[in-house]
Specification:
The chain is mainly alpha-helical. 55% of the residues lie in helices and 0% in strands. 35% of the residues are buried.
């Protein structure tokens, strides 16, 4: 299975750039302001945000299950977020932090250095910016 390490499939910008854009948008910035912050065209950021918003529920659920599998995490209540995108960014970050707490290193993927953004991309399986995530990829299957 191929897991993206430095960029998402069919995207030339780094994983860190994409995650920075998603985090800024999750805080309420519009695509033009986000584009200025990360230094890419506004149309590129708008496309990322459309895909990420379309996949946010799938990715957030996948990250919750992943985190639960890593540390038997069972939240008493889920925090409220203004948008599904904010929920997804927060949930993936929590799962990436859980990976770091449990293993302290990067997943065993060649070229992965272990940044939280790379681990987050590993958790999403690279499907974050893909149109029409296949049903078979929508759920994490532990083990």
């Amino acid at each position: 299975m191929f897991i993206p390490v430095r960029a998402f499939p069919r995207r030339t910008d780094s994983i860190e750039t994409v995650w920075a854009a998603l985090a800024a948008a999750a805080q309420g910035l519009g695509h033009r302001k986000v584009a200025e912050q990360v230094g890419v065209p506004a149309t590129t950021v708008r496309g990322w945000l459309r895909r990420a918003r379309a996949n946010s529920d799938i990715i957030a659920n996948r990250a919750r299950i992943f985190r639960s599998d890593l540390e038997r995490y069972k939240p008493d209540h889920l925090p409220k977020f203004d948008t599904p995108l904010a929920c997804m960014v927060h949930t993936v970050a929590g799962a990436a932090c859980a990976w770091k707490r449990r293993f302290g290193t990067a997943p065993p993927v060649p070229g992965l250095t272990g940044t939280l953004q790379q681990i987050g991309s590993f958790i999403t399986g690279g499907w974050l910016l893909i149109a029409n995530v296949p049903l078979s990829k929508q759920w994490w299957r532990p083990g």
